[in-house]
Amino acid sequence: MNPLILPDTRRHATTSLSVNVNKVAQLRNTRHLGIPGVVHAATLCLQAGCDGITVHPRPDERHIRAHDVHDVAALLQHWPQAEYNIEGNPFQNLMGFIRAVKPQQATFVPDSESQFTSDHGWDLAADGERLRPLIDECHALGVRVSLFMDAEPGAMAAARAVGTDRIELYTEPYAAAHGQPGQGAQLARFAAAAAAAQAAGLGVNAGHDLNRDNLADFLRAVPGVLEVSIGHALIADALEFGLADTVRRYRACIAAAQAAP
């Protein structure tokens, strides 16, 4: 085993659901009333059965603010079975939060400061050597690292070589193709990328534009996904179903996919 890669002790037969609470913070930030509360929303999600909470503290604090990172960390002290996943660009403000909070997982995302949302994975030929010491630092802190990656099978050996523990597949191209003629080709591409990552010794996460309609199809076609991180669609669904019931509906999608023959 590469000694720089942490043993992955959270591999489950069932895919874990991490709820991204960014959009709760974004709605709160439109007023000065402190509602809806990020910690309260995270608590409801945990009570409903989610496996972890994700936050993405961007430098402009358009949604998650610095105090939210620490407030959620304090909440999760009371939920030791749950995972805290902090994502962001390690060349911006992310590493300060990782050093202070030491979450279970840091997801490195190659966003620019002005970027509207995540829309591509890492180019390891360009950034791999810069990422390596930051991955090593996370490991020294006891933090698992996941790299946000496009579904390119040929890139997975390079991801392993820079020392990451997992990759998170950027699933927007699949989501855009869902229900369209290109869906099968996208699923085959993602399955091949996941298989390549697993063959290289990496765990596989997935996220971006996954929702109740496309999640089960994805998990059926891409076996062995350890974790999905879902925010925008889940929070949107909560406007209709309520937050707790929505979490249960997403857990049901995961269960249905993994019950399929």
List the helices and strands and how they pair.
Layout: E1 16-20, H1 22-28, H2 38-47, E2 52-55, H3 66-76, E3 83-88, H4 94-101, E4 105-108, H5 124-140, E5 144-149, H6 156-161, E6 166-170, H7 172-177, H8 183-199, E7 203-207, H9 215-221, E8 225-230, H10 232-241, H11 243-259
Parallel strand pairs: 1-2, 1-8, 2-3, 3-4, 4-5, 5-6, 6-7, 7-8
Helix pairs in contact: 2-3, 9-11, 10-11
Short summary of the structure?
The chain has helices spanning 22-28, 38-47, 66-76, 94-101, 124-140, 156-161, 172-177, 183-199, 215-221, 232-241, 243-259; strands at residues 16-20, 52-55, 83-88, 105-108, 144-149, 166-170, 203-207, 225-230. It is of the alpha/beta class. It has one domain: Aldolase class I (TIM Barrel, Alpha-Beta Barrel).
Q: Could you name the key traits of this structure?
A:
about 260 residues, alpha/beta, TIM Barrel, 8 strands, about 15% strand, single chain, 11 helices, disordered N terminus
- Helical fraction equals 40-55%
- How many strands appear in the DSSP assignment? 8
Report the CATH architecture: Alpha-Beta Barrel
Shape descriptor reads globular
Number of domain units: 1
CATH topology category name: TIM Barrel
Secondary-structure-based class equals alpha/beta
Question: What is the number of helical segments per DSSP (H or I, 4+ residues)?
Answer: 11
Mean of all residue-level pLDDT scores? 93
Radius of gyration: 17 Å
- Which CATH class is shown? Alpha Beta
Q: What's the arrangement of strands in the largest beta sheet?
A: 1-2-3-4-5-6-7-8
| Assembly type | single chain
Largest sheet: 8 strands, parallel, barrel
| Beta-strand residue fraction | 15-25%
Give me the strand/helix succession.
EHHEHEHEHEHEHHEHEHH
Low-confidence stretches: 1-7
CATH H level, superfamily name: Aldolase class I
Distance between the termini: 33 Å
